[in-house]
Amino acid sequence: MAPQRPVGSALDKAGLGIKLLGISVLAGVLVAGVALPAVGALGLTAKDTADSFDNMPADFKTPALSQASLIYDNQGGLIAKVYDRDRTILTQEQMAPVIRQAQVDIEDNRFYEHGAVDLKGVLRAVTKNAESGSASQGASTLTQQYVKNVFVEQAGDDQQAFLDATRKSLGRKVQELKYAIKLEEELSKDQILTNYLNITFYGHQAYGIEAASNRYFSKSAKDLTLPEAAMLAGLVQNPSAYDPVLHPKAAQARRDTVINKMLEYKHISPDQAKEALAAPLGIKYQEPQNGCITAQSGMGFFCDYVRHVVKQDPVFGKTAADRQKLWSQGGLKIYTTIDPDKQAAAYHAVTTKVYPTDPVSAAISMVKPGTGEIVAMAQTRPYGLDAGKNQTVLNLNVDAVMGGGNGFAPGSTFKPILAAAALENGIPITQTYPAENKIPYPSMSTCDGTWRATGDTVQNESASEVGPYDMNTAMAKSVNTYFVELGKDVGLCPMRKMTNSLGITTRASGATIPEVPSAILGTLEVSPLKMAAVYATFAARGLHCDPIAISSVVSAEGKKLAVPKANCTQAMSESTADGVNTLLRSVTEKGTAAGISLDGRAFAGKTGTTDNRYAAWFDGYTPELAAAVWLGGPSGNFSMRNVTIGGIRRGAVYGADGPGPIWQAAMREAVKDLPRTPIQTVDIPAPADPSPTDSPAPPPTTGANGGLINGGFTLPPGVIGGPSGKPSRPGRH
Question: Residue ranges of region Disordered (predicted)?
Fold first, then answer.
């Protein structure tokens, strides 16, 4: 590396002495080497200019540069690189010395000899331009160029700020000069050069020497060879004209100019120059890989979910602007909870059982009980913007606020929530009701009063479903009338409170949850991730944890940031959870899910099918892992009757034969290496032999104007949530 200039040299003093002179003469010749009116002509005095030298922002010498963030899975594998600007900041030691020398030799060969202003360079430029009659040669030093780049970086996507930062004006040039002088007082030449190499744009979305090295040569900046370094150093002057991908001949000619300059300044030998000049460009170009679209194994949707978490959770900043700045600034290392093996299992299951070209889609979320960790999140259609390739960026696993849609009616998978509320409030698991095939909706208490019966009725799926039934048999057979009768005794308020304690505080759309009888039968739209967290709570014996996607974050400065917590709380007593486990074990052993197996491993779960077969679910768990699978039309009411899904023609889809096989395939692979822990249950009399029916709720009763009768008032046509039936349409997705 060239030696530092001697302290106190004549040139050094001349450079710093500019402050005292007010740069009244010098500033007039610094704009692209063209003589302009002196500072005095603009009304600036020497005192004004000198005083302004003390006003440079403290963070200007080491500005926060936007750079790429990296998102990792829980085994340290890279999921995606995301950035507003592709940049990785390096230290001096992480850069090959040859690139540092090449950049100096072609940009400012006297960089280590002059101050912030190169007086010789200014005079040379003025003379050359006078001789040629044009402004063909400039006189900016590398430090001044660095200052200009800082202004451009600060402008970001603000077009006006960018124009101000690049405008050829005397005022801007004076400001650049002022900052350059201050920088040379406070930073060493090596520090300025390092900053310059980190901030400079090299074309093809590559900011800084590390991104450029990776873009054009598929290697790190520390491994650059002489000809490679020369090409990159020459690229800075005009990344478009010297683009080695589009204009290789121009790029090589420019590279050779740099090599010859390095030879002229005796920084390489003649033999090194000869060898470098004979070398091919050797481009090994890598297209910019930005964003969640680059994630593998269907992790794009999870990656997008992580982005929403960073931008929305207050732990990452008090305001939306603060969080956006953190994300845009980048440089983050985000370590997530996603398990690549379980993700692969979920992705394989959901994409082989349902094709991207099918009229329906499927989504699956997996959550680790007792921790809230999201270990898998996958859906049928690939992440992307090309609708022609059946791509989508709509995350069907999550609520609208997190990048999802308006959710889906969960059907009978919601009944265990009422059962939990009942057990928690003292109703025994042996509770029996007549559960006739068809009954009127009874009046039910709410948190604010009473939901009054309107004469609407609810009935079971099959005419043979006639009680009396106890809770265990009713859950196994999914008997609608039983749970409506249970809801009358429990009340809608305890059910709502239990729903809230299980993490569902709003519909997936963000709308409030009404206290209406139809909620018992699963008409209020939710997301698969929220349902996976509900069933993970049962698996964890009542310990509910909010779903979390991020385990740790390290900032660009190497500081460990706070991350969202799972906020685990006991949503119900262990005995209540054990009772629910017992009920859901009956479903998988002799009820609607008896056809699903897990290689002899004990598991519990619940099927759900909505009216008109608009959606079908299977939510289930072992003590180690919970998963929720949804199947249905992603963009509206699509009746899954006489439909081909995954190459199989189906007359009608149920929770057990639609999402059930997806859950089975994903979970078999996901838990195969996990211990076979028994599920905690309670002792109750064995139920009578139930025959699986997985009954959906009947169609809603309509009022005189065609709207659904709901909670004592009539909703307009198309509004979701009648007391006795399913939604008239699921939320738009």
Answer: 680-733
SS3 string, 690-729, reads CCCCCCCCCCCCECCCCCEEECCEECCCCCCCCCCCCCCC
Strand runs labelled E in 31-102: 69-72, 78-82
Query: Count of residues for the chain?
Result: 733
The per-residue pLDDT for range 454-473, each reduced to its tens digit, is: 888 999 988 899 989 999 99
* 74, two tokens: 């829980």
Query: Residue 524 and residue 531: Cα distance in Å, rounded?
Result: 12
Mean local confidence (pLDDT), 556-566: 96
* Phi, psi at 730, each rounded to 5°: -75, 170
Taking the CB of residue 43, how many other CB atoms lie within 10 A of it?
Answer: 7
**561-565 long-range CB contacts below 8 Å, 24 or more apart?**
561/316, 561/332, 562/315, 563/315, 564/309, 564/313, 564/315
Surface-to-core class of residue 478, CB atoms within 10 Å of its CB (0-12 exposed, 13-18 middle, 19+ buried): buried
How far is 607 from 478, CA to CA, in rounded Å?
Answer: 8
- For residues 461 and 480, the answer to whether their CB atoms sit within 8 Å is yes
Question: Out of 176-180, 421-425, 663-667, 710-714, which region has the weakest mean confidence (pLDDT)?
Answer: 710-714
This prediction's pTM? 0.78
DSSP lists the bridge partners of residue 82 as 69
CB atoms within 10 A of CB 178: 23
The candidate with the shortest Cα–Cα distance to 477, out of 580, 617, 592, is 592
Beta bridge partners of 368: 373
Express each pLDDT in 715-727 by its tens digit: 222 322 333 333 3
Q: Residue type for 600, please? A: G
The values of phi and psi at residue 170, to 5°, are: -65, -40
What's the CA gap between 646 and 629, in Å, rounded? 15
Q: Are strands 373-379 and 361-368 parallel, antiparallel or unpaired?
A: antiparallel
What contacts 24+ positions apart, CB below 8 Å, involve 17-24? Answer: 18/116, 18/117, 18/177, 18/181, 19/49, 19/50, 19/53, 19/181, 20/46, 20/50, 21/46, 22/46, 22/47, 22/48, 22/49, 22/50, 23/49, 23/174, 23/177, 24/49
- In tens, the pLDDT along 188-208 reads 999 999 999 999 999 999 999
Q: What are the start-end ranges of the E strands in 299-393? A: 333-336, 361-368, 373-379
Q: How far apart are CA 445 and CA 421, in angstroms?
A: 14
**Whose CA is closest to 655, among 628, 694, 621?**
694
- How far is Cα 378 from Cα 364, in angstroms, rounded to an integer? 5
Q: What single-letter DSSP state applies at residue 360?
A: S
Q: What is the DSSP string of 125-192?
A: HHHHHHHHTS-------HHHHHHHHHHHHHHTT-HHHHHHHH---HHHHHHHHHHHHHHHHHS-HHHH
Angle among Cα 471, 515, 702 to the nearest 5 degrees reads 95
Residue 566 CA to residue 368 CA, distance in Å, equals 11
Torsion angle, alpha carbons of 446, 450, 456, 458, to 10: 40
Report whether pLDDT(31) > 50: no
Question: Which residue(s) pair with 367 in the sheet?
Answer: 374, 626
Residue 225: CB atoms within 10 Å: 17
Q: Are 79 and 336 in contact (CB under 8 A)?
A: yes
Q: Which of 583, 611, 599 is nearest to 680 (CA)?
A: 583
Q: Name the amino acid, one letter, at 572.
A: M
Q: How far apart are CA 484 and CA 353, in angstroms?
A: 34
* 71, 79 contact by CB (below 8 A): yes
3-class DSSP state of 634: coil
CA-CA-CA-CA dihedral for 487, 491, 492, 495, to nearest 10 = -80
Side-chain-side CA neighbours of 676 within 13 Å: the count stands at 7
Nearest to 196 by CA among 208, 187, 183: 208
